[in-house]
Amino acid sequence: MSEAFRISMNWLHTWMGLVVGALLFAIFWMGTLAVFDREIDRWMMPATRVAVPAAVSVDAIARTMHPLAVAAKARRWGVQMPTARQPTARAYYDTATERQVLHLDPATGVVIAPERTLGATGFFYPFHFSLFIHHWKMGEWLAGLAAMAMMAMCVSGVVIHRRIFADFFTLRIVRKAQRTTLDLHNLTGVVGLPFNFLISFTGLVIFMGTYLPGIQAVLYPGEPAAFAVEAYGTPLASPAKQPADLAPLGAMVAEAQRRWAGAAPATVLVFNPGDRAALVHVHQDTGARVTMDANTVVFDGATGRVVAGPHRYSPTLMTLSYLSGMHYTWFRHATLRWLYFVSGLAGCALIATGFLFWIQSRAKQHAKAGVRGMALVRVLSVGATAGLVLASLAFLVANRLLPDLPTIAGVPRAWMEVRIFCVVWLLAFAQAWLRPRTVWRDQSVAIGGACLAAVLLDWVTTGDVLPLGGEAGRWSAAGVDLVLLCGAVLAWISARRLHARSQIVTRRDPRSAGSKP
Amino acid sequence: MIASILLVAALLPAIVGGAMIALVRRAHWTAVTGLPMPNGSRRTKVTVGAGLLLFTVVFAVLRDGWGMGLLLGPLLIATGIAIVIVTLALQPRALLPVAIIVDRAARQRFLPGNPTWHQQHPTDDIEQ
Q: Could A342 and B79 be called an inter-chain contact, meaning their C-beta atoms sit closer than 8 Å?
């Protein structure tokens, strides 16, 4: 390998990491949280911490949801069947402008609670791929750019790592922070390389339609819906504007199960509710496999007659579906879920240590040369990493502190939580700018405090104190509490070490104290 | 129960295999045993270590089938290697049992290609 090539890869790795590092961290962090989105939802929606139901009645759910959807002139309503991770029937209806979500008792169809928080499934998960920038799908494009950059950095990182095999098992926890940071960066990069590369690649695959719209436009000119019919077997119909009742949903689900040889349903969607042209899609539960082939069966909503299905995916789509399934992690596999979570955290550590190493290796040099950009990079690195973690914790704390009302100060409660998230994130950036000397230690302390506060508030507001939450079968919320406690301990250790190091630096050179992160 | 046993059975070869490959490096061997590294075939040890890593994938596929096993196996290998790296950094002596197994296996010629091995090997003095 020529030295010139290695140097060019080094340049690419360094500067691409600096430019997209903040974006990548946000995507990785939110994706990591989304691995346990249902569990975080249970934590944020205490009313839904119920036992897994022994029986499910789709007809009872329909008796509650269908009249609501018809009254709201919804274009569709749907229900997610209860699972161990989400023991309620999560039902919703979509009007032209908004979505209303309710949690129902799966056996009786009685409303348990309206959803007054976006939770992890409504905030962390969509933030992961859309960044909540919906104009021209800009968020998805940025996420795609970040995924491409991650793949390029995985490859360039291997090229520039001269002693990749010699140092493969090396982690030197020494006094010289720069050495430890680089070792941590190399360790998380090399050990996590297959995960990081594949998760980026599969992320791109999922949004293939967005990034390569031309293929669909060429193959299905003027008929975007035709692709969905051919690929997924999910036809749609325009309303006939003639009222009609909905045929019994339970019979439709039973017929779908018969066609699937007894497999369980995951979701039921009713399009054009209350109309003679109503269509019902019943999707199969794919939790037992990685491939997300839903084998959809479509029914005429008014008559209950089978329109199509079960739809079998083509081999190409099965491959695509396996790759998507690798990324979505919707399968029921606790060990894999934990390994994804830890690998995601390692990815976050990789990005954060990359930032840190950039600063550590250039701080003195730039200070001597009078380069001004260093302060900006430092603010960006702290705000984008520690600041985002802190904002996510503030989101959880706000969920516990805000009163359970539909609106607060004229703002829907769910969006008030998001506002608090944004304000705390901005404050983290501001603090990084104003107090560069102690910002890492301060934000570590704040993260530890927020973790503890979240656990305590959960205890106070719900009475679910560890380990009683687990004993009562509420493992989802107990697990979140346990992870928060581990986070508090880690943040406390980090803060102590940072404080100790700043003391050493201060004794050695009072002027440069705090100039290093 | 069987699933849990298979999970442990899948993770163990990842840790032992990772440790075997790590102990081929002189610095790691010395950190673990406190002794200079004996002569021996490194390639064979790396091959056996890599074979053990492959066992992890086999156990994962046996446990969960091809679809999930092919995801679980590599992630368990990464976990095993990460455990070895952290152990080497914080408590290298904890890998002494693996070093002793490697050492004894080499002397028993379970791992071939070691004609220059000592009669009285330095690790004979190490307390287990």
A: yes
pLDDT band of residue A365 (cuts 50, 70, 90) is confident
CA neighbours within 13 Å on the CB side: how many for A288? 6
Residues 30-89 (B) with a CB less than 8 A from some CB of A? 64, 67-68, 71-72, 74-76, 78-79, 81-82, 84-86, 88-89
d(CA B20, nearest CA chain A) in Å: 11
Q: What is the mean pLDDT of residues A235-264?
A: 91
pLDDT of B66 over the 80 cut: yes
Interface test with B, best of A167, A174, A190, A191 (most B CBs within 10 A): A191
Q: Is B21 on the interface with A (CB under 8 A)?
A: yes
Q: Which of A166, A170, A290 sits opposite B68 (nearest CB)?
A: A290
Q: Quick check: B72 and A173 CB within 8 A?
A: no
Tell me how close the Cα of B124 comes to any Cα of chain A, in angstroms.
Answer: 25
pLDDT at A383: 94
Longest dimension (CA), chain A: 83
Look-up: residue for tokens 């539960």? A285
pLDDT at A481: 93
Q: Is the peptide bond before A436 cis (omega within 30 degrees of 0)?
A: no
Touching B: A residues 192-221, CB under 8 Å: 192, 194-195
pLDDT at A467 over 70: no
Distance separating alpha carbons of residues A395 and A414, to the nearest angstrom? 10
Residues 6+ apart with CB under 8 A from A377: A18, A355, A358, A359
pLDDT score at B117: 42
Distances (CA, A) of A351 to A5, A203, A392, A466: 23, 18, 18, 33
Note the pLDDT tens digit of each residue in B9-52.
999 999 999 999 998 888 888 899 888 877 767 788 888 899 99
CA A393 and chain centroid, separation = 14
pLDDT of residue B116: 43
Cβ neighbourhood burial of A351 (10 Å; 0-12, 13-18, 19+): buried
The lowest-confidence range among A171-185, A188-202, B50-64 is: A171-185
Closest chain B residue to A342 measured between Cα atoms? B79
- Which chain B residue lies closest to A330 (C-alpha atoms)? B68
Among all chains, which residue has been given the structure tokens 């010395």? B30
A342 or B42: whose pLDDT is higher? A342
Please identify which residue in the block is written with the tokens 């029986």: A55
Classify A73 in phi/psi space as left (phi over 0), alpha (psi -120 to 50) or beta. Answer: left
In chain B, residues with a C-beta closer than 8 Å to the C-beta of A328 are none
ipTM of the complex as predicted: 0.88
Q: What percent of chain A has pLDDT over 70?
A: 95
- Residue A101: beta bridge partners? A92
pLDDT grade for B128, boundaries at 50, 70 and 90:
very low
